Amino acid sequence: MGKPTGFLEYERIAESYEPVAKRLTRYAEFVPRLTDAQAKIQGARCMDCGIPFCNTGCPVNNIIPDWNDLVYRGNWREAIEVLHSTNNFPEFTSRICPAPCEAACTLNIPHTPVGIKSIERVIIDKAGENGWVVPQPPAQKTGKQVAVVGSGPAGLAAAQQLARAGHAVTVFEKSDRIGGLLRYGIPDFKLDKRLIDWRMAQMRAEGVSFATGVMVTKTRLMDGVHSDAKKTITPEQLRKDFDAVVLAGGAENPRDLPIPGRDLKGVHFALEFLIPQNKEVAGGKKNPINVKGKHVVVIGGGDTGSDCVGTSNRHGAASVTQIELMPRPPAEENGALTWPYWPLKMRTSSSHEEGCERDWAIGTKEFIGGKNNHLTAIRAVRLEWKDGKMAEVPGSEFEIRADFAFLAMGFVGPVGGVLDAFGIAKDPRGNARAETEGAVAYHTNVPRVFAAGDMRRGQSLVVWAIREGRQCARAVDEFLMGASLLPR
Length: 488
Ligand SMILES: Cc1cc2nc3c(=O)[nH]c(=O)nc-3n(C[C@H](O)[C@H](O)[C@H](O)COP(=O)(O)OP(=O)(O)OC[C@H]3O[C@@H](n4cnc5c(N)ncnc54)[C@H](O)[C@@H]3O)c2cc1C
Ligand code: SF4
Fold this sequence. Notes:
Layout: H1 6-9, H2 20-23, H3 36-44, H4 53-57, H5 64-72, H6 76-84, H7 90-96, H8 100-104, H9 116-129, E1 145-149, H10 153-164, E2 168-173, H11 194-205, E3 209-212, E4 214-216, E5 231-233, H12 235-241, E6 244-247, E7 253-254, E8 267-269, H13 270-281, E9 295-299, H14 303-315, E10 319-323, H15 335-338, H16 350-353, E11 357-359, E12 362-369, E13 375-386, E14 389-392, E15 398-401, E16 404-407, E17 411-413, H17 418-422, E18 449-451, H18 454-457, H19 462-481
Parallel strand pairs: 1-2, 1-6, 2-3, 4-5, 6-18, 8-16, 9-10, 9-16, 10-11
Antiparallel strand pairs: 7-17, 12-13, 13-14, 13-15
Helix pairs in contact: 3-5, 3-9, 5-6, 5-9, 6-9, 7-9, 10-19, 13-14
Bound molecules: flavin-adenine dinucleotide (FAD) and iron/sulfur cluster.
């Protein structure tokens, strides 16, 4: 423990944001990292708890008290080693993780958790700048070949771990670039995509091969699911060419809203708006959906919806409204009841702060069209929630002006046909069925085929995808070699 009295002496320092006016002019990240001195003070606040709830609250079980202490002492190089020992990609999590570790921190009881995520960011950024993140190729090759389907955080974590264990790994990705939702989905202002390229260079040097624009299984994709595939490869071919296959294809099928007017122009799935924006920022062609001067309604209150809000404001929308079916959450959690677990409470993202009307307990009844079959308004109704059941409030119908509506109501499962083509048994929600514990962890019902990330657990978080990729890699290594030295 760095400084026994640190938590009494120092306040929590939150990362600052650039002014709204500046950040709305571009798609660049806008959260400057803490200075080294600030990070040291944050590290000094850690109490090195006997039971570090931060460690169990973190899905990858980051060894947080240890790196807090190392940062306080200025031992940055050892800090990155400890951080990398549990997390392959802290450059992603330190930017976009909602930080369940901070919710679990003992100092969150009085709502002043250690700024764990901001410390993580300084550790990894400094390590990158100082050239401390170098390839770790295996000392020996095993001669085994592993195919990873999907290059999101789950597939990348699995691939990196397996390559370091000596296996020849090929990652197949239907998009033209690697990264899954990190690359196409999450806006550039939340995550600078150069970080993905930087990590890929390390992985290539460790022996991972990437095959982009390749769709595993020929299948019809629903609207809102993105593909740049020019080639396909069959499950039979993969199982013939590789000793093991890891399915990490995410849960990309968006939840639809089949109400009258759904087929009007201007009504889109969120990713039909967000992915072309990523491509435009990367130098590709212009986003065909332009909401400059338009009234935008985002339906769905989660991360995806918030990203549509931030992107619409960068376009220069006339107004942005976000509506949600569920009731408005409490402003603060009752810590005595919820700590150390992830609390239900009102969350206001940086995108919301940039300008957005938010409303809760709203049901959407109809998309109303005008000239040229284009959306002009949404007919909605207020809802009352009682004992977990919702009912429409009689006489509460109203209209919201809308030129564009983005559906951001979550995702309902993996892209159609892929699991069926492999013959994979599914759970009741349509995800790949595979246990995370036991002798055959992450192994599906199909011999030599494993599943991890959103494709197994349903739409989740980047940090959970990294955890599953790492744990799945260990299971595959054990399966292929009889034993594994990879961490679980
Ligand atoms: C808009 C948006 C914002 C989000 N923001 C956050 C956030 O701020 N913080 C956070 O923690 N989480 C966030 N999430 C959730 C997070 O991105 C996901 O939980 C995470 O990326 C899942 O990782 P994955 O590797 O399992 O799948 P994905 O990232 O979905 O990657 C799966 C990849 O597999 C590819 N694929 C699928 N099928 C095939 C096939 N048959 N052949 C070849 N390739 C295939 C897909 O093209 C895709 O690239 C967000 C999600 C969305 C949609
Ligand atoms: S719970 Fe908070 S104070 Fe305790 S060890 Fe973890 S980061 Fe430090």
